[in-house]
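To whoever is on call:

I kicked off a structure prediction for a single chain this morning and the downstream step that reads the tokens threw a length-mismatch warning. I double-checked the sequence; it's 247 residues and nothing unusual in it as far as I can see. Pasting both halves so you can look.
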Amino acid sequence: MSILQTKDIRHDFHGLAVLFGVDLEVAEGERRAIIGPNGAGKTTLFNLITGKYLPRDGAVLLDGRDITRRPVYWRARHGLARSFQITNIFRRLTVYQSLQAAVLSRRSIRLDFIHQVSRMTAVNQEVDQLLERIGLSEQAQVPGGMLAYGQQRALEIGLTLALRPRVILLDEPTAGMSGEETRHVVDLIKRVTEGMTLVIIEHDMEVVFGLADRITVLHYGAVLASGPKDEIQQDPKVKEAYLGEED
């Protein structure tokens, strides 16, 4: 059974159509990449799935349940978590405080955490585990804004994991990174999302083919092709429209 679906999703901005009936089905535990040229509608699709935008037509389903009109916070609390193309972290909070805030939010605990959270053993243990998973234990007391770019991306992934999501959506997780940073983040994503459902938008084809089981190609707001990565890699329509090759 699919854990995430879009059915005939259509959207426009002030009359300019950007998505034309996009159907997407992602199985539980699958790693799906969404690729396509700039302007193909990839991030718009993410924004519709996560509730930032309301589609003009069509539906978004999570585990068979229609969530098309559910607000962003509801979707996050019921298993959808995402990162953004531009790093989105608490720049003034330390890494530890940032992860604490995310864990407290998921647990629906509202406290003056500066004074009280240190006594919350379960929360602190969870934060320590997250720090170890994302490789930032040594940077726990460093403000988010002072981290190196690759470490900021790791923190953002940690904030996503703190929600204990059923589906993780990553929007260009390696954008702007050096080759070494990219390899590190790809290894991190592989490790921390093992057994989870992952959907990524990514331009780097080496990253795509390294992370994804299946690939969906968007072209001018419509699905051009969708299938196993080896099949997509050999698809002549994809080569011509996106990978820049022709038979």
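Update from on-call: the warning came from a stale cache, not from the record. Cleared it. Sanity check on the structure: Residues 2-241 form a domain with the Rossmann fold fold (CATH 3.40.50.300).
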